[in-house]
Amino acid sequence: MNSGTTSSEDENYHSNGQDHPRQRPAKKYIASRTQSTGYSRRRKTAERASKAILALATCETSSDEAMDILNPDINFHASATQKPFPPKKIERPVYDEKGIHISTGIDLCDCLSEQCAGCFFNCIRCGSPKCGTTCRVHRTFVIDYIKYEGYEDKMVKNLLNRKLRN
């Protein structure tokens, strides 16, 4: 097909040092968004509101009932979502500021032995050797019993629980 004559395009490619004809980059077509998601959401809610107004207009309701429905002062969504929380159970301390049991007045060690003068390391918070893993100052719970591992029948029950019942 090459008859010896070259076209002007072929001369331009050879003069530029290119072996192949120039290629155009592919165009990428990106669909432009005419509406943002926020706009379309607002538009949909406006359409729903207008449909509701039309439904109320065609409905056989009195004007007072319609005004109650369309009253902007009443916020139905806020009243539906706000639910009262039940009051929290207030835990009163069982021990006072010195670590003594409030109702009985007994200074019992956490090993639950009456004769013990304190068998734990001194407490970091109050300095008492009678506090176990938690400090007894304003503690809200009482140790019910201590069960020794390896001994099936070895269990020490708290004397304070017995004295409270009597």
TrEMBL record:
Domain ARF7 effector protein C-terminal: 87-148
Residue ranges with Basic and acidic residues bias: 11-22
Region called Disordered, residue ranges: 1-45
Cross-referenced InterPro entries: ARF7EP_C
PANTHER family: ARF7 EFFECTOR PROTEIN C-TERMINAL DOMAIN-CONTAINING PROTEIN, ARL14 EFFECTOR PROTEIN
Protein name per the record: ARF7 effector protein C-terminal domain-containing protein
Species this protein is from: Ceutorhynchus assimilis
Lineage of origin: Eukaryota, Metazoa, Ecdysozoa, Arthropoda, Hexapoda
